[in-house]
């Protein structure tokens, strides 16, 4: 260890000697300015060299064949990208817009589903975080090995439920809707999806709510025909002949009462 | 042969069948069918703002409904053996059916626990 350390120090010293004056450990302001200017010039020259020289575009890719043997066409870039980690877009404001949780029994399948969502987010232009694992839920199930006399001998099993979570930032509600419906369209059978959508309101949101009238409030289309069947049945029953008579009876009873009190 | 149940039902698929399973299945279909009516009658019977006689009438109608329309009549049964005892509700399996399958690794997410 010691020998290695001394060697590196010597190398460092050598470099120092080559770049600047050996005597000057610290540069004077004038020298520093000169050095900076020289560095800038060198950088400029380097950049110009890069631009003047013609270079061929040859990206390093993982797939061995440039042309797909089945379709006999070049492998599309988005297909090639499946071999890499999902690309993340940078956040613009960092406002949380939506988060999806995936729950299932197979962690590999969960990773697959979460990555699919992350890739979909990239192609829709939604900045989103990496799929993060959630705490594994364990449930203990104890059964007896044998009935009655040997019922004291038990066997324990555990049900493990794994989870992943993905958070999306800075996207329009319409884009988020598209993203969520696309994920829903291509959902995995064995995975439970749960999405939370966050919205931001202005500071005077309470005033806006107060100003609303009953006519302004409209339920989304998805609520159409979702009237409570029990309340409908109650109304139907109370209008039926069997129940109507009790209401008819009560009214004349109430009328004399009110006369008495008057 | 006379059909055993007062209302004709389709037999359950993908489950072990015996008389008790079919009986329970019959109750399940009938409870689902009468759920709205029962809840509506319960609402009328318990609503103190309604006339007392209407509430009594609702209570009478509730009690006169057949036993098989009550949700409490439904019992969890094992779908592999039809047994009603020690059913693991997560998997709808009896303890024996569950243990055999779990040991073979046929139930997703379930492993032998050791600590």
UniProtKB/TrEMBL annotation, chain A:
HAMAP family: Ribosomal_uS10 (MF_00508)
UniProt organism field: [Candida] railenensis
Family: Belongs to the universal ribosomal protein uS10 family.
Source species taxonomy: Eukaryota, Fungi, Dikarya, Ascomycota, Saccharomycotina
Protein name (database record): 37S ribosomal protein S10, mitochondrial
Cross-referenced InterPro entries: Ribosomal_uS10 (IPR001848), Ribosomal_uS10_dom (IPR027486), Ribosomal_uS10_dom_sf (IPR036838)
Pfam families membership: Ribosomal_S10 (PF00338)
Limits of the Small ribosomal subunit protein uS10 domain: 99-196
Domain of life the protein comes from: Eukaryota
UniProtKB/TrEMBL annotation, chain B:
InterPro entries: Ribosomal_uS14
Any Pfam family matching the protein: Ribosomal_S14
Superkingdom of the source species: Eukaryota
One term of GO molecular function: structural constituent of ribosome
Entry keywords, A to Z: Ribonucleoprotein, Ribosomal protein
Record bears the keyword Ribonucleoprotein: yes
GO annotations of cellular component type: mitochondrial small ribosomal subunit
Gene3D superfamilies: 1.10.287.1480
Single biological process term from Gene Ontology: translation
Keyword Ribonucleoprotein appears in the UniProt entry: yes
Membership in a protein family: Belongs to the universal ribosomal protein uS14 family.
Protein name stated in the entry: 37S ribosomal protein MRP2, mitochondrial
